[in-house]
Amino acid sequence: MKPKKDYSYDKEVAEKEVNVAYSRIMLLGSAGVGKTCFTRSLMKEKYQSDTDSTIISDVKSVRPIDTPPAEQQDDAITTIKSPSDKPLSRTKEFITPDDKEEPRYKSSHNRSVRFKSHMLSENKKWKQVDENDEIDELAYLITAVYDKDSGSEDLRTAVAALLLYKIESPFCPSDFSNQKIHREEVDSFLEKAIKRAQMIGPVPIQDIKPQPFMHIWDCGGQAVFLEILPAFLSSRTMFFLLFNGAKSLDEKWKNIRSKKGNMVCDEVESISTKNLLFNWMANIHHHLARIDEKGAFLSYPRIYCIGTHGDLINHDEQIAAIEKMKSTYKNKAFSYLIKKVLIVDNTTAGSDKEDPNFSVIREEVSDFTCNKLIVKTPVSWVLFRKVIKLLGTKVIGLKEAHKIGLACKIPHNDVPKVLLFYHDLGVLLYYPFIKGLQDRVIISPQWFVDTLGEVFTLEGRENQDATEAMWNLLREKGILVQPLYQEVWKDCKEIEADDLMELLVHFCLAAEVETDQFFARNAKQYFLPAVLKSYDTSYLQSSCDDEPVARATNIYITFSTDFVPPGFFTRFIASFAKVSSCKICFEEGVFRNRIVFKFGTPSVNQVTFTDLCTTIRVSVERYSDAPNITPFSNTCQELKSLLEKCGNEVDIALGNHSDFSKSIEISRKLNYECTACDKYELHYISPASGQTANLPFCCQKRKNYRQPTPEESYWFPKEEQTAENVPVTISEKEMAVISKRVGDKADTLAACMEMLLKFKALQQNPAHSNNPMLHLLYEWKSGGGYREDLIEALKSADLHQLADQVKVSDYRPASGRLSVVNIRQPTNEHCSDFDPSQNVKDIEAKNSISNIEITEAGVKATRGSGQLNNSYTDQQHQEQQKFSEAFWDIEDDDLLRSSNFFDVKDIKKLVEICDDDSGYLQSVMDKYQHSDAQTIAIQVLRALVRKNPSITKKDLKKKLHLMKFEEAANNLSEPFEATKPAPQASQPAQSNTKCFVL
Questions:
Q1: Fold assignment, 462-532
Q2: Which H or E element spans position 517?
């Protein structure tokens, strides 16, 4: 068997390090301010007055070089002479010295001089990276790591072998002939690099200085695109924030687009240029500012404020604009990131009278890249980057990346580190934490950003034949439907359309929702708030024509930087929209900075979110007080927890944690508007730690303590009604209570627990038919059920009040209903208030349920068969039979006789007094609401007895007397058989006075 040839180089060489200098230059600012012209000016290209607006972004790779005049002239007349000299890129034409000029090239450029041409000198010129630059970079690496020519030839062979992987790639399908052509191009490239390395001669690795490569991101300034870009921020970046120096910073900016010389205004934004730049600065600081291991600020990122249209204002006006800009932000937390404020004239670009500020900017960029962003990088990592770039594709699989890494002598476990390293540098994109993308490496960030941005449209995309209605739905309602994004991304063969949506969901740019806005109900729908138009928040708009029955004081989400970071609000809304209990209220209008949700089940609560630039206002109102719905205070407290959760999700989505430096933590806080003082000046109240609805607040304005108003108290729990220290599982005592309170919704609850068939079987089993829900809960817990799961099931079954009680493990009756005080040991003479929690105590005292001990062995026995073991079943049946003989002395005829003495008013009173939070008696009364009074009465009395199996005829009679139903009580007949005394009856009678609180 032939040994497999090893094409890789020595590990000792692979572990050597070289300096890498990569930086990203991101141009941000309002639309139409001149970012594209500014980029051309940095490249010393001629000014063009009719430059088209950038859509999404335009990424250029450039480098500063020293090009002597003679060489510039030579380059100008050089042409491509052979197929081997053609560039690898199919979109750009590069100029490459032909073979016959190589001797002159070698003799006139020794190693030090040629090396200098890669570095920075007095005569800098920026140029777009071409094949020559790539060849030179690889050539110097080859001369540094290989002592012999054979080593570089082995590298050439290894790369050729690696190119074969492309044929097997599932993400980049292409025919064999194209693969062959590309392999020949790459081989030609390596041949030139090796030949140039031989001309240069050996270079000690320590002599290789940083080779600067800069990636310029000219970002679309339209508001919708500004929402996308935070997902691609990197700390190793110079940010140029451009503004119109000829206009006031307080002027509201416009979404201006230029296409073929025509200027189009999309919409007027409610934010001023000053606030727009302010938000970007704070956003950069919030997400990218870092602290090193010594606690000092890192030298990156950096911010430069660049005013354009310098040709429209004189020198004094320029000075005034610069001073205005400096004074505006000098006391802000991010001010240390601002390095310079300059005014430039783009019209002078490429001429002899170029604005000198462009030279200043180039010098700043070059110095920053070569002196501040130096990263020592293993040679193996550098070659890894070179090879994946040579593959000439947009996306490769992670499996391919591992194979390439192995050939470059990178350990298998280090390949993800390499990918994250280059991700942070902006060279590629790698998302190991996103489903659908974790096994792919995106080689072309520009392609990926542009692909995602195709759904973030501007006006005009709606006029596309069959998809016009779907584009309208996206633009007006923010709903992106599956047929539309499949159509938009149908030509994207590298990544599936659904996987691209996963990325948008991960970064909280989209949320999967269910609406009635699209006719195909089985098609996926996503809500994209970022594509919506803005709402002028200066106008007051009533969210509903009806007067709410309850309203909580407004919550204001504030940030320690005194503003809402760009992109935070729309992501916050997207995170909130995916909650199952939230529904978008399209009737009220949906906007990028204001949106209304229906919240809760049923949807009787209305939540309005408004982005006020400095804060986010959250308003909550209830428009119905129907029975059997969650109390408004519980709704507000659930919403408050949800606000915190959504905020944390956005922080994670916008965070950049691929490096090992410490981020600067920016605090976010929920503030409660004071409703006791006048409304002329907004201020907050300061809740104490562990604040409840009954504890005093401190008013931040008056600095005094006072009791909460009803609007303020909704946000805080009542005393002892918190979910802290509540067990994660349900106790047996709780099961007994819950099983009684479920009432006639037992079937629904069983279905929500996905145990309906089991529940039906328990109902048919004589041993379990008396309380099948109790046994169902036991089996559910034995199977691993948790409290949170049961809470969700109860809510789905519309048992919201019971769900709230399960959440805090507090089953006492709600305020306003009957409660019991001065409870003593129960006897046959007691007066029950029909509170199910007291029911449990009675049952325990009479040895009906609490004496049934369920052991761990019994639990294990049920897991295989899904039933309780036989010994437990027999024991329980005996106990229930004993209980039935002792207490079931109420005949149906007794109830029928008594029902003759109730009118409708009496029945309602009986239900109001005796019903519990489950609303079981109320539901029975509603079921027979169209029947006569006697029918309703007999059904309610039967339900009352069913819910209280321990009640005797004497108890019921006394209850009716206490409720002033004298005739109904007197007509309950005497039992036919003497009732056996309860176990407690043999004990001495004790005073057991109970007080009914209505």
A1: Arc Repressor Mutant, subunit A (1.10.10)
A2: none
Pairing between strand 479-481 and 525-527?
A: antiparallel
What is the architecture of the domain spanning 1-453? Answer: 3-Layer(aba) Sandwich (3.40)
Question: 725-729: long-range contacts (C-beta < 8 A, 24 or more apart)?
Answer: 726/787, 726/807, 726/808, 726/809, 727/787, 727/809, 728/786, 728/787, 728/788, 729/781, 729/785, 729/786, 729/787
Sheet holding 479-481, edge to edge: 479-481, 525-527, 511-513
What's the CATH code, domain 546-721? 3.30.310.200
Q: What is the pLDDT of residue 178?
A: 61
**Which of 502, 30, 24 has its CA nearest to residue 233?**
24
Burial class (CB in 10 A: 0-12, 13-18, 19+), 789: middle
For residue 985, the model assigns a pLDDT of 39
- Return the domain boundaries, the chain: 1-453, 462-532, 546-721, 723-811+847-888, 817-836+890-976+982-998
Could you tell me which residues are beta bridge partners of residue 237? 24
- Alpha-carbon span 558 to 700, nearest angstrom: 15
Using CA atoms, how far apart are residues 458 and 369, in angstroms rounded to an integer?
35
Q: What gap in Å lies between CA 524 and CA 887, rounded to an integer?
A: 57
**Cβ pair 409, 9 in contact under 8 A:** yes
Does the bond joining 602 to the residue before it have cis omega, within 30 degrees of 0? Answer: yes
pLDDT at 157: 60
First to last CA, the chain: 94
Question: CA-to-CA distance for 718 and 634, rounded, in angstroms?
Answer: 10
The per-residue pLDDT for 662 is 57
Distance between CA atoms of residues 634 and 640, nearest Å: 10
Q: Which of 285, 234, 286 is nearest to 425 (CA)?
A: 234
Q: pLDDT value at position 643?
A: 93
CB 859 within 8 A of CB 883: no
Omega prior to 988 cis, within 30 of 0: no
Q: What is the dihedral of CA 249, 250, 255, 256, to 10 degrees?
A: -50
Distance CA 410, CA 398 (A): 14
Contact call for residues 927 and 743 (beta carbons, < 8 A)? no
Q: What is the DSSP letter of 537?
A: T
Give every residue of the chain whose pLDDT is below 70, as ranges.
1-15, 50-129, 141-183, 201-212, 220-232, 253-270, 457-466, 538-545, 655-666, 679-680, 719-725, 812-889, 917-918, 973-998
Q: How far apart are CA 951 and CA 884, in angstroms?
A: 11
pLDDT in tens, 243-300: 999 998 888 766 555 554 554 455 545 678 888 888 788 778 877 887 877 778 888 8
Q: What is the H or E stretch that residue 622 is in?
A: strand 616-622
Structure tokens at 308: 């354009």
Cβ atoms of 608 and 541 within 8 Å: the answer is no
- Pair 595, 584: CB distance under 8 Å: yes
pLDDT at 860: 34
- CA–chain centroid gap for 613, Å, is 20
CA-closest candidate to residue 219, choices 241, 251, 245: 241
Give the integer Cα–Cα distance in Å for 561 and 332: 8
Burial class (CB in 10 A: 0-12, 13-18, 19+), 143: buried
